[in-house]
Design brief:
The complex is a heterodimer of chains A (245) and B (500). Chain A contains 13 helices and no strands. By secondary structure, chain A is mainly α. Chain B is globular, with a radius of gyration of 23 Å. Classes of the chains: A mainly alpha (245), B mainly alpha (500).
């Protein structure tokens, strides 16, 4: 067992723990904080299934963003859709045998790697080229894009610049999951790729990446428009109801 | 006080996104509330000694109370989708009027005190300590938000800057840095039952004067009853309806509708105000206190229904919050929604053929409709989503022959605010009001020159007051703004009372 393998194995356990626990804590905070008033933005759905459909449109199609700005929508949709494909493609490193549909999407996942980087480049360019977006961008906004672009580019390099030993890599990944550590190939692009992924997982619960769970908890989008027919009362607000006419 | 000097925005053919002009509106601040406006609401009279710690503590409390605040402060990715959506940014070019930047005034302090990233790496994530300069920015820019929620419609996460500016204002109230206009008005509601400080005697005299006017016009004694026990409907309307034009013409319209439908109704002097300015300062407790006056009045008068007059944020508080704040309303007639908007009531009566119109009475006008922000984006009318857009237009079309809509991206859920909402309808903010009205004025000018529009109807007291003031600033006639029920009033066919 090399020091490198041990370091990366521990790094990934730590990253997974921070990601999982950090995210669970944030979600628990969102869930336990009451929404005292009904504030859905209209035209809002009148039923719970309507709300689920609305949220699905937001998450899958970026409906509101489409209304707002077609350029941001295009780059954001490109990046996110590609990211989903790429992530699904990576499932093959964690499965034995590999599911049939995961095998089927492999070629698309490869193109998605390029689309993901292109989407990121578009989003990043806006931060320099559009005065208003330049004004609101902070250092962390640039770093986040750099991190994701670094992951995308190092991943593509593993395929097109210096192919990695994916059999060994898969053994390492499966070993991590089974607590039976296997040696990690010491290839520079792979080490960079994996390290950046670990950083992303660690940063996730402390950064603006919280928009991912946040969108499901946004009262303007997840509330049912039934304020007149159902009384909506937060716990802390109920206490104020004592002794009124 | 000398008239403030500023350049009015030019109305161009198309709405132009301005280049950013840093600190262009940093000087814009409303008058600070004095101790006599603060203390009756339970707020400190002036900026307290330990304001920093008190502000942070209050922020922590609000984070515990409001999921919206917590989620909105975490979720923003700085995508920029909102940056060109605020009418105050479009009118002033001040980048802190971009919704994301306005939110960041609060978010930077939130990050510093409530997140690990901000505690350990403030420069990285744009976290800042709450300094006097930051507090002054809060006071300036949280009072340059009319809480119209246009940005919330366009944000991919539904981040609502209104919630942020309300939280900012609530924190400032609790450290003794309140806004005079809103807090003085809230005090008047507590004391007199309405924003204007009108007392029962004066109110009665005003209403009798209006009855005389209507009798002269129609030949029929149409009543505006006050404090009549056993009436079916309690009408709660903005007090501007008793007082200013074109609001008062709208009130006469409601009276004619009730008269023609034979519905026994009444106004209450105890709850003679629909507006609830506590929304603007973000105070749940104050909002509830005002809402409970309406409950008390309904119980005292023994009414069966509650109907709200034409007022935007009043309708938001009524539609979305009244059940929460002052419900349950199980002592009222369940056949009607509680509360009901006057437009819903009128529309139903039109549908049933109970009221009819001589449309030609409005033939001297070509009408367009301004969707008031709080009605459009904070409430609903009728049984279907989007009823708040459809019903007022249906009423206008029922009583006018000439109706034209403004450009699609400036109406409905995307409507531009009048520029005077959210507690900004005060002369100390006139520069902001004029500049913030620019996008609406631009869209109006388009239909005035292109399609011959002569009048713009609205269903909000603040919109009506604001337009009366800003239309002349853009070379248009202040009488262009009319109440929807003023149009109803002009054209409704009146018969002598069926029951009274």
């Amino acid at each position: 067992m090399t020091a490198l393998t041990v370091t990366y194995a521990l790094l990934f356990y730590a990253a997974t723990a921070v990601f999982g626990l950090g995210l669970a804590y944030r979600i628990w905070l969102y869930a336990k904080t009451p929404a005292p008033l009904k504030i859905p933005t209209p035209p809002a759905p009148l039923t719970k299934s309507g709300v689920a459909f609305r949220l699905a449109r937001e998450v899958v199609l970026f409906e509101s963003l489409f209304k707002s700005n077609k350029w941001i929508w295009l780059f954001a949709a490109l990046f996110h859709a590609a990211l989903v494909l790429v992530l699904l493609r990576h499932l093959r490193y964690f499965q034995e045998p590999v599911w049939e549909w995961v095998k089927l999407i492999q070629p698309f996942g490869l193109y998605a790697g390029f689309a993901m980087v292109a989407g990121l480049a578009g989003l990043w360019a806006r931060r320099f080229l559009v005065e208003r977006v330049r004004y609101i961008s902070s250092l962390s906004d640039h770093l986040m894009l750099a991190l994701l672009a670094g992951i995308g580019l190092s991943g593509l390099a593993l395929k097109y610049v210096e192919r990695t030993d994916i059999v060994a890599l898969k053994a390492f990944a499966l070993g991590l999951m089974r607590f039976d550590w296997q040696p990690l190939p010491a290839e520079p692009f792979l080490l960079v790729h994996l390290a950046l992924v670990a950083v992303l997982m660690i940063v996730f619960p402390f950064s603006k990446l919280l928009h991912a769970p946040g969108v499901f908890f946004s009262p303007t989008r997840n509330q049912v428009d039934d304020a007149r027919s159902r009384r909506h009362l937060a716990r802390w607000a109920a206490a104020l109801d004592q002794g009124r006419p | 006080m000398a008239a403030p000097q500023y350049t009015k925005p030019e109305l161009t053919d198309d709405l132009v996104i301005p280049a950013i002009a840093e600190n262009a509106m940093a000087h814009s601040k409303p008058f600070v509330a004095k101790p006599e406006h603060q203390q009756p609401l339970g707020f400190p009279g002036e900026l307290v000694e330990d304001w920093h710690d008190k502000a942070i503590a209050k922020m922590g409390e609000l984070l515990e109370r409001s999921r919206a605040l917590r989620v909105f402060l975490d979720s923003c990715v700085k995508c920029g989708a909102c940056t060109d959506k605020c009418h105050y940014f479009l009118g002033t070019g001040d980048p802190k009027n971009m919704p994301v930047a306005r939110q960041d005034l609060l978010r930077q302090v939130y990050r510093r005190h409530f997140t690990l990233a901000g505690r350990f790496f403030p420069a990285l994530v744009g976290a800042k300590d709450l300094t006097r300069e930051v507090l002054d920015d809060w006071y300036s820019y949280f009072h340059q938000c009319s809480q119209c929620r246009r940005c919330a419609v366009f944000c991919p996460y539904g981040i609502d800057t209104a919630e942020i500016s309300m939280a900012g204002r609530e924190i400032m109230d609790h450290i003794g840095m309140g806004q005079k206009y809103s807090n003085e008005i809230i005090g008047k509601v507590h004391k007199f039952g309405n924003n204007l400080g009108l007392q029962e005697k004066a109110l009665r005299a005003t209403l009798e004067g209006l009855e005389d006017d209507m009798e002269e016009e129609t030949g029929v004694r149409i009543r505006i009853p006050l404090n009549e026990k056993g009436a079916e409907v309690l009408l709660v309307t903005p007090s501007a309806d008793f007082f200013a034009s074109p609001h008062i013409e709208g009130l006469m319209g409601y009276a004619k509708v009730f008269h023609q439908a034979g519905i026994r109704w009444t106004v209450s002097s105890f709850a003679s105000e629909a507006a609830n300015f506590a929304l603007f300062v973000g105070s749940y407790e104050q909002m509830q206190k005002i809402a409970l006056r309406i409950r008390q009045a309904a119980l005292d008068l023994g009414v069966k229904r509650i109907v709200f007059g034409e007022c935007g944020h009043a309708w938001r508080v009524a539609y979305s919050f009244l059940n929460t704040l002052a419900g349950p309303w199980d002592f009222l007639d369940p056949a009607y929604p509680t509360p009901q908007h006057i437009c819903e009531l009128t529309y139903d009566l039109i549908q049933k053929g109970v009221i009819t119109f001589d449309k030609s009475k409005n033939d001297d006008k070509v009408i367009t409709f301004h969707d008031s922000c709080n009605v459009a984006r904070g409430s609903r009318m009728g049984a279907e989503p989007g009823g708040q857009f459809r019903i007022p237009r249906e009423i206008i079309k029922a009583c006018c022959n000439n109706f034209v809509d403004m450009r699609a991206d400036t109406i409905g859920e995307k409507t531009f605010c009048c520029g005077g909402g959210g507690g900004l309808l005060t002369d100390d903010l006139i520069e902001l009001r004029v500049k913030g009205a620019m996008p609406r004025m631009q869209a109006l000018k388009e239909v005035v020159t292109g399609r011959g529009v002569t009048h713009m109807a609205a269903i909000c007291a603040i919109c009506k007051s604001q337009f009366t003031k800003v239309l002349p600033e853009y070379g248009m006639d202040m009488d262009m703004i009319v109440s929807v029920h003023q149009l109803v009033s002009n054209a409704i066919r009146i018969e002598p009372a069926k029951t009274m």
